[in-house]
Design a protein that fits this description.
homodimer; Farnesyl Diphosphate Synthase; two-stranded antiparallel ribbon; 74% helix; disordered N terminus
Chain lengths: 359, 359
């Protein structure tokens, strides 16, 4: 569900240290699970396998960047707080994949996918086996969601600060779950029920940008009015990121992204750009669009016709404009903040990667 | 999934105050959700409806009892910590119900059940609609699981204590999720994969007894060796409670329990008593048992034959013996602890209700 970006966010790369924190957490859970039953240990091994299979630790790394940028001096103390967000992220992916009926993640089986194989000799009926595999995935997501609060609590910071960042985590869960519900429901409530910007704000910006940035910032001595600016920065950057992602999903370079750029059109993905199309297009353009958009078996030429309609209607341009708007809003928020000199370039690179990338 | 008991746990009844804390939490979430979308507010209204429909707040009340029994003086300060466990409980029920394909809880629609109705005009295909309804239920459970950590953090106790009880919460989630996975898997891994006592320990004792008692105790000044005794008390009481529940599920008085006492036999529920049967019965008894046990459409006479086999084999007596064993282990653990005089009777009543009730 979540788009990924690969920024070289930081000169000082804490990815290994973050992975160490995550691995250590998982190793401890596996030992505890083994005491209960090897069959329980199994689910932790599957979680470990999935987490090792992918994920650029974008959110944890963004937390570290924010922490450093706003004056934080003791990165090791906050690594658990940063890493906890990867657990939340994977929890949400696992549960979203159940809802989206996806069984592959990071190019490997997700939890439902692997349990479907694991149960293959135990449950012969396909539908029944899939049901139990999804059940295991529900439980696996619960474990990581709960784990994210626990890992956050292992940060070497005063207990009051732990509570404060847990509240941020809770707010992000509240928002991303709401965003996921609203996004799922657009499949049958229709596009008018909720705007794509709202979904981008809550499903993407909340826990992919606002939470990581705020967690990092909250662990420094930043005053609360500055924290609001950090949230504002994250919100606008996150929306810009999502809109850029929607553009890449249709107009991106497949060779560069490694992802299909016909899939979004064939599945009829409802994005801000599509909303703009329906606001701007002529009746003829709309008629032709509806003929192809969302058609699972349309030809590549027909996909291309949809692309041309998005350009001709002005929907692409309007979306580019919105990206620029949100980018400038993000920059405005950031300008009110004082940034550590050695982090200025990294923040700039974050903004560029989030809003202007082409792949 | 979880059995319920109706002890008059406490002379001083904090149920209204607990409900107030829960209602206040839900009301705040509803307001925040409304800002995002009425469609998001809806899921919080469904959660409110479900939580109002039932639940005796057993776990929160047990927390309060433990707190008072071990010298806690300021019940209002810990009400959020107590109430948080009800959120966890309902979160687990919602997710378990998806796995068990149950759509009724507390005699009303659960979240999947109510969303299946809510989506009735939006999604015409039955299987598709049920899938989306289960998706909403996954998300609803996530909200309450996350909410339980947040509500706990609202306790008016030092931040260090909040972190300590959150770790207890996390341990309980770890155990109950593991218990649920193992219990679910017995349907196809068979009874030998994990013992019914292990499932009772992790699925029932962990978050229905150990967590509530430990949360209450941890918020007093009880030294850590005493906390181990509290955990030991909760573990043994919880297992005794589950074994008693299994007995009632087969031999209980339907009029008194208000629940079917043929259901467990017709669905072939694997319990400690059934394990004992297979350990103790003669080949002939086993052959007859297998003929009826788990038969969805067996007659009441055949159900009665199964009951008689459980008695004749000695399985019922062995289970009664196990209940007594765990009860005495619980009492032994409790005896090492110093109890506030005005709580002695209530703890005694808790033990009696948990282990010796007939309905």
């Amino acid at each position: 569900m979540q788009p990924t970006i690969d920024p070289t966010l930081q000169k000082t790369d804490y990815t290994d240290a973050l992975n160490q924190v995550i691995d250590d957490f998982l190793a401890r859970q596996k030992v505890k699970a083994q005491v209960m039953s090897p069959d329980y240990q199994e689910i932790w091994e599957e979680l470990e396998r999935l987490i090792h299979a992918g994920g650029k630790r974008l959110r944890p790394r963004m937390s570290i960047l924010a922490y450093r940028a706003f004056g934080g001096q003791d990165v090791p103390s906050m690594l658990p707080a940063a890493a906890a967000q990867e657990l939340l992220h994977v929890a949400m992916l696992i549960h979203d994949d159940i809802i989206d009926r996806d069984y592959i993640r990071y190019g490997v089986d997700n939890i439902a996918g692997s349990y479907n194989k694991l149960y293959s000799e135990l449950v012969t009926d396909d539908a029944e086996r899939l049901h139990y595999a999804q059940g295991a995935a529900i439980l696996a997501g619960d474990l990581l969601l709960s784990g994210s609060y626990l890992l956050m609590a292992e940060s070497m910071v005063p207990a009051e600060k732990i509570i404060a960042i847990q509240k941020l985590l809770g707010q992000a869960v509240f928002e991303v779950v709401g965003g996921e519900l609203l996004d799922t429901e657009t499949a049958f409530r229709g596009m008018n029920a909720v705007s794509a910007e709202t979904v981008a704000r809550y499903k993407t910006a909340s826990y992919t940008f606002i939470l990581p940035l705020l967690v990092g910032a909250r662990l420094t001595d930043l005053p609360s009015e500055d924290l609001s600016s950090v949230a504002e920065f994250g919100k606008n950057l996150g929306i810009a990121f999502q809109l850029r992602d929607d553009i890449i999903g249709v107009f991106g370079d497949e060779a560069a992204t490694g992802k299909s750029t016909t899939g979004d059109i064939r599945e009829g993905k409802r994005t801000y750009m599509v909303e703009q199309f329906f606001a701007l297009a002529t009746p003829d353009q709309k008629a032709m669009f509806k003929q192809y958009f969302g058609g699972a078996s349309i030809t590549n030429e027909q996909v291309d016709t949809v692309r041309k309609l998005l350009v001709a209607s002005g929907a692409l341009a309007a979306t580019e404009e919105a990206v620029s708007f949100y980018e400038s809003m993000a920059r405005n928020a950031l300008e009110t903040l004082s940034i550590e000199p050695d982090c200025v370039d990294e923040l700039e690179s974050l903004i560029t990667v989030a809003t202007r990338r082409t792949a």
